[in-house]
Amino acid sequence: MTISVLIADDQAMVRAGFAALLDAHEGIKVAGQAANGREAVALSARLEPDVILMDVRMPELDGIEATRRILGPDYPAARVPRILMLTTFDIDDYVYDALRAGASGFLLKDALPDELVNAVRVVAAGDALLSPSVTRKMIAQFAAQKPRASRASTVLSELTEREREVLVLIGQGRSNGEIAAELFIAEQTVKTHVGKILAKIGARDRVQAVIFAYDSGLAEPAS
Fold first, then answer.
1. Looking at residue 36, what is its pLDDT?
2. pLDDT tens for residues 153-205?
3. Is 26 part of a structural domain of the chain?
4. Rounded distance, CA 153 to CA 174, Å?
């Protein structure tokens, strides 16, 4: 199946470069380009892409607000895309807000071509992705500055003890294999737990699970 991509960036050369790179790979097709957040919202509803590469800082409407609108309840299209945020700096003031808005991950603009292509495929498959430079310590730092959500604490009570253990490790950025080793259980069992956790907390992917872990107080910011 071909992955359709919408590129939203206010720099024409950046859009053109990403478009040429992605179109050159089998199974990926650039459906459209937007020069600002407002255009991104409109084109997303019309084109219904699988993935949006969304620049954080854009005129008229920034990438954070565009992400909120596209992933919000009033979004008019039937198919909701996955959004991969693009940023120039590895520690960006908007990182945490973008993740809370529903972005599936972050990628630096200076990432290697293969990293960009892989990121598009990973996000399109329903997984979450964070640039290696966007560390879990940084996520925790942003989480420490945000008020805890009361709903998170309520939903947390619905998790089993084992699911809480798994969620704590997800919050630490552990992979399924690492969680399996830590808890002495099979990796397939971890996948089952992760699926149940995402369903119970209403999260799209692991990034949203990390946010939930901090919002609920289950995971604590790194010192």
1. 96
2. 678 889 999 999 999 888 877 778 889 999 999 999 999 999 999 999 988 78
3. yes
4. 22
| pLDDT score recorded for residue 138 | 54
Confidence (pLDDT) at 148: 56
Sequential DSSP letters for 96-154: HHHHHHT--EEEETT--HHHHHHHHHHHHTT--EE-TTS-HHHHHHHHHTSPPPHHHHH
Tell me which DSSP letter residue 91 carries: S
Q: Above 60 in pLDDT, residue 210? A: yes
- CB-based contact 80:69 (threshold 8 Å): no
Q: Considering its fold, how many domains does the chain have in total? A: 2
If asked whether residues 17 and 100 sit together in one domain, one would say yes
223 has a pLDDT exceeding 50: no
Residue 118 lies in a domain: yes
Q: Which residue, 77, 100, 134, sits at the end of a domain?
A: 134
Q: What is the CATH number of the domain that holds 153?
A: 1.10.10.10
HSE of 197 in the Cβ direction (CA atoms, 13 Å)? 29
- Euclidean distance between the first and the last CA atom of the chain, given in angstroms as a whole number: 44
Percentage of the chain modeled with pLDDT above 70: 84
The CATH number covering residue 120 comes to: 3.40.50.2300
Rounded CA-CA distance 44/33 in Å is: 10
